[in-house]
């Protein structure tokens, strides 16, 4: 199933356990255990930058987290040789079955660990500013420095490098979220898709991979398009995906597409400009063309836990809207056949479909 990747979420729940897991990846501990299936504890940390007490702490935390399993040694411990029979053998360390299964999605797991680490100082050290003023918080936050859109207009080596850093993070999330959207939306009914704010083109790649007759135009800021074209180039779907630099407010949306999509874009925009963008979509679509919105929706945090792995999402708590906000704007703009599907991932997502009929 396309949601199988959610098995990584328990390993991202607790902050201490998740950060210790990240340290284990960085040290090479996970690779050693994975490669050998079972490793004697006294050998596991050999030549690694970790002393005995630190090694024991890491093992204890990750055993509690369900990452590692520790058992009494059944084989000869090389470090116990020549020390007599009264020397206890070092325990054997292995990965749990649950974590072995999660490692199938290692790329996503490590990306979410990295993303959470980047924003953790903002959240934990600057929470009062976040609560009092989003604008003041963002002006000095690490998140703002990472997502610096001012560097997305002029294509220079430095701007491309800086922009590619956050694009790698968001693209990995999209790689796993997009197939879920494909399960719930009829992309096969369309031939030309305009993906507004399409970032690296990863969403277009995933959709085109499942729909061989579909061609896509990814519209975004100039540097994002430049980096995105390089991202898409190695994929078999690349000939069916083109990039078009576009200023969403100043430029007209290109015609010739029977489907326009927003994937995790509109939450970044204020209410008044979302209304503008939806009206521009209606004007750009042919009769019976369709608009699709795929976004995290507002959810009641008081009813759910707040895992460490959600820190990058929680920083935007002001931005997530209820489906009714979008359906009202769609109806006012002239769209019909409006439908909403809610999909539960690590947080609830909404898939909104609307048809530009009645012309």
What does this molecule look like?
The protein is an alpha/beta fold and 359 residues long. The chain folds into 2 domains: 4-103, Winged helix-like DNA-binding domain superfamily/Winged helix DNA-binding domain (Arc Repressor Mutant, subunit A, Orthogonal Bundle); 173-356, Rossmann fold, CATH 3.40.50. Helices cover 44% and strands 16% of the residues. A 7-stranded mixed β-sheet has the order 6-5-4-7-8-10-9, with helices on both faces. It has a 3-stranded antiparallel β-sheet with strand order 1-3-2. Strand 9 and strand 10 form a beta hairpin. The model has no long low-confidence stretch (mean pLDDT 92).
Distinctive features:
2 domains; three-stranded antiparallel sheet; 359 residues; 10 strands; alpha/beta; Rossmann fold; single chain; seven-stranded mixed sheet; 44% helix; Arc Repressor Mutant, subunit A
Chart the SSEs and their pairings:
Layout: H1 15-27, H2 29-36, E1 38-40, H3 41-44, H4 52-64, E2 68-71, E3 92-95, H5 97-102, H6 106-125, H7 127-132, H8 134-139, H9 142-146, H10 157-184, E4 192-196, H11 202-210, E5 215-220, H12 222-232, E6 241-245, E7 259-263, H13 271-284, E8 289-296, H14 311-314, H15 323-333, E9 336-344, E10 348-356
Parallel strand pairs: 4-5, 4-7, 5-6, 7-8
Antiparallel strand pairs: 1-3, 2-3, 8-10, 9-10
